[in-house]
Amino acid sequence: MATGAGWAPLRSVERHGAPRAGGGTRSKSVAPGPRRPSPSPARSRPAPDNGGSADSCRVRVAVRLRPKNSEELAHGADFDNCVELQPESKRLKLKKNNWNCESYRFDEVFSENASQKRVYEVVAKPVVESVLEGYNGTVMAYGQTGTGKTYTVGRFGKDDPSERGIMVRALEHILSSMSFETDCIAISYLQLYLESVQDLLAPEKTNIPIVEDAKTGEVSLPGAAIVEIKDLEHAFQLLQIGEANRHAANTKMNTESSRSHAILIIHLQRSSRIKGGNCRSLSNDTLDIFPDNLPLVLKSKLLIVDLAGSERIDKSGSEGHMIEEAKFINLSLSSLGKCINALAENSPHIPIRDSKLTRILCDSFGGTARTSLVVTIGPSSRHYSETSSTIMFGQRAMKVVNTIKLKEEVDYEILYKKMEREVDQLTSEMERQQKVIKSEKMQLDKKLKESEKAFHDLRLTSNMQIENLEKEKCHLESAVKNLMQTLEEEKGQRNLLSEQIIELEKLLNENKQQQLENISKTKILADTSKEHEKEMGELLKLLEEERSCSSSMKNRMSVLQQQLCDAQSSAQLQESMAREFEKKLTKVTEEFTSQLQSLRKNISELISEKEVIYEELKSTQEKAQQEMRHRQGLEDQILRMKQSASDNCAEVSKASCGMVRSGSGLGNAAFVSKSGKLREAVSGQRGTISKIFEEVGLPNVLSLLKSEDLDVQIHAVKVVANLAAEDINQERIVEEGGLDALLSLLETSENTTIHRVTAGAVANLAMNGSNQGVIMNKGGARLLANVASKTDDPQTLRMVAGAIANLCGNEKLHLMLKQDGGIKALLGMFRSGHIDVIAQIARGIANFAKCESRVISQGHRKGRSLLIEDGVLTWMVANSTRFSASTRRHIELAFCHLAQNEDNTCDIIASGGIKELLRISRESPREDTRNLAKKALDSNPAFLREVQ
């Protein structure tokens, strides 16, 4: 069983969302936010639930009616219903008797037949998704004993999954959305019993202290067990252990009445990464040290609170120790009610320290958490006072505004470990390179020695061969000289013989001439000539032998000369190889020395960087503390300024009321003449406008819309627009003819300011679902389209686009909206190029596609999308990656919903939308959008063929 040590906070990086029409971006600030900002009157309107884009978020309240129990069914008419539900208009009527009843409006109204799944999806699912994104959240159940709080929140439903309550469904949702490789989830389960905090997972831990961080205002419970979980089965076991240790008793109101407040705290820690260039919340020095991505951790927590039921002693029948339990329960609930009243009335003092329950929940009401409250009531008129008290508690809670914040922490531990790993890798790499260089040097030294030895042996052998060749050359030269002398002598002899032969031939010729004279001497001469011819043949033969011997000696001499040349070239080659080996050895030695120096330099630089990092961390912490003190001083000044501003506003309101009473009516000249100064004094003060409205009356305000004075007419439209921003005034404005007057101004007026403010008022009225059909039936979409075609003013176009975007959220009006040119007008406003106008266009397209996809999936309509017929698909493919993150998110969501309709398949393929779907499934920052794109690709065979 783990403790809270592993969840110690690091240096935090909090993100605050900025409210924008149709979407928003998030900015960051390093310093932690205040523990409880004072909500101003201008923030009493609930922030839009569009993924946590707004920094202010009203507490969402739903009411759930318990079915009649066996006792109420048995008595029949004795216990008539005092509650009448109107789920369609989200209203509830509380009947005191047959002629007196009161109507209340909530964010959601659940009948006795509402399923556990629907209650979770409406009440808790938006909070859970916000917690998964990094924000704190709270889901709480409040009501009388026996009205079904524990059933709504803590029902296990292990045998029947449809009976599961909010605790189990929230854990199941979180576990299915997290990756356990990088994320971590842990839970704590506590109870507040007799004003003492006890651990339900470790019953031995009692009277756990509540500690508040003086710097951040964050509340913690040191010593409470924090158990890390990996699957739903483990969570079931822990919840069963906690439920077994919780105090419960049997009363007249409930057989298993909870005698303590149960608080389940789910701690989430999710990894996140942001680019160094986008880390605006970090100092420039830190960014210079870490140019790459910083490891970030999103830390958030979800509180699921099952409050014990308020009760009366006479009705519950408590006795003995149970009376003490009831006293402490009612005391803590009373303290909680006082805090809610103070927050709803913007009181300067919030009594959170009156009870441990209010201290634990200080972040849930008026703090930084997104909070949803479900109040449970019974139908019987017997408990009218308790039901009325519960309803009024919910009504006051709806006025509380929280400031949600995203908390990101730079994970310096992971960063330090990463640097240590890099230093170790560099050190091991340096050692490895040193070993490799050393082994290479040894091998090169060995090769060099072998080469030097071979070169020495080769040089000795070459010298010996050269000496032998020189000696042989000398012998050959002497033999050639002798042969030449012999040839000269033989040549002389041959010449001599030739001369002798010539002489003999002469003698022969003479002898032939003398043949006739001396026949007797013929034989002698013949014999002599034969002898001479024989001698001459022998001499010729000897000459040929001498010639062949001379040629063989010349060939041998040429071979010896060639061998001598080869030996000389081999010696030169070996000398050049030796010189190259020496050069290579020198070069390797120099490279090894330079690498060794560079590695030593890198090590020294890393060590110095590590020291600089530690110094920067210390200086950053000191700067954060200074900024926090400075911010606290600024907040005190702001609070004082707000107090003085509220006093001034009250004085102006009194003066304006006096002016209204002194005149004969809003339409007279005296009021109009003084309205200029009055308008300047009360501009931007919605509370003052509401007081004027209550004093003057709506018909008189609407009558000013027809004034001939343009300034009066403009300011009257602004007053109506501010009134239309409140839900409670929207239906009344339409009933009193305010919508008709506004549409008439859109049609007849040529003034740009009138168009802009009137379009804003219509946009506010279009937020009410019951008003949307009236606007369409009176031609509101056609008039808005005409205004969009006539003006280029970006602010006017933004208001018109916002009004059309609100109308796009009603699937019943889609066909009429297309026929009146609303879709073409919405797409045509892209020409302005203004980011706020484009954001509203993307929001309207997303609303239209989402509603159309739901209607088609339910089988109410078939066929090609109406958006495709007006060219919206081509525009989305061409512009899906050009705008801000929030605008791209709306376009991606619209694209995924269009891809769900099989009748749009051919158009999506023809427009190149397959690549866009693939990009969304891989690169979209929102996981639900990626899953929607993957589902569209996997479920459509045509898309799969295109992808393959």
TrEMBL record:
<keyword id="KW-0493">Microtubule</keyword>
<feature type="coiled-coil region">
    <location>
        <begin position="571"/>
        <end position="637"/>
    </location>
</feature>
<comment type="similarity">
    <text>Belongs to the TRAFAC class myosin-kinesin ATPase superfamily. Kinesin family. Ungrouped subfamily.</text>
</comment>
<dbReference type="InterPro" id="IPR016024">
    <property type="entry name" value="ARM-type_fold"/>
</dbReference>
<protein>
    <recommendedName>
        <fullName>Kinesin-like protein</fullName>
    </recommendedName>
</protein>
<feature type="binding site">
    <location>
        <begin position="143"/>
        <end position="150"/>
    </location>
    <ligand>
        <name>ATP</name>
    </ligand>
</feature>
<keyword id="KW-0067">ATP-binding</keyword>
<dbReference type="InterPro" id="IPR019821">
    <property type="entry name" value="Kinesin_motor_CS"/>
</dbReference>
<keyword id="KW-0206">Cytoskeleton</keyword>
<dbReference type="InterPro" id="IPR036961">
    <property type="entry name" value="Kinesin_motor_dom_sf"/>
</dbReference>
<keyword id="KW-0505">Motor protein</keyword>
<dbReference type="Pfam" id="PF00225">
    <property type="entry name" value="Kinesin"/>
</dbReference>
<feature type="coiled-coil region">
    <location>
        <begin position="480"/>
        <end position="517"/>
    </location>
</feature>
<dbReference type="InterPro" id="IPR027417">
    <property type="entry name" value="P-loop_NTPase"/>
</dbReference>
<dbReference type="InterPro" id="IPR047149">
    <property type="entry name" value="KIF11-like"/>
</dbReference>
<dbReference type="InterPro" id="IPR000225">
    <property type="entry name" value="Armadillo"/>
</dbReference>
<dbReference type="GO" id="GO:0005874">
    <property type="term" value="C:microtubule"/>
</dbReference>
<feature type="repeat" description="ARM">
    <location>
        <begin position="696"/>
        <end position="738"/>
    </location>
</feature>
<dbReference type="GO" id="GO:0003774">
    <property type="term" value="F:cytoskeletal motor activity"/>
</dbReference>
<dbReference type="InterPro" id="IPR011989">
    <property type="entry name" value="ARM-like"/>
</dbReference>
<dbReference type="Pfam" id="PF00514">
    <property type="entry name" value="Arm"/>
</dbReference>
<keyword id="KW-0677">Repeat</keyword>
<feature type="coiled-coil region">
    <location>
        <begin position="409"/>
        <end position="450"/>
    </location>
</feature>
<feature type="domain" description="Kinesin motor">
    <location>
        <begin position="58"/>
        <end position="400"/>
    </location>
</feature>
<keyword id="KW-0547">Nucleotide-binding</keyword>
<keyword id="KW-0963">Cytoplasm</keyword>
<feature type="repeat" description="ARM">
    <location>
        <begin position="737"/>
        <end position="780"/>
    </location>
</feature>
<feature type="region of interest" description="Disordered">
    <location>
        <begin position="1"/>
        <end position="58"/>
    </location>
</feature>
<dbReference type="GO" id="GO:0005524">
    <property type="term" value="F:ATP binding"/>
</dbReference>
<dbReference type="InterPro" id="IPR001752">
    <property type="entry name" value="Kinesin_motor_dom"/>
</dbReference>
<keyword id="KW-0175">Coiled coil</keyword>
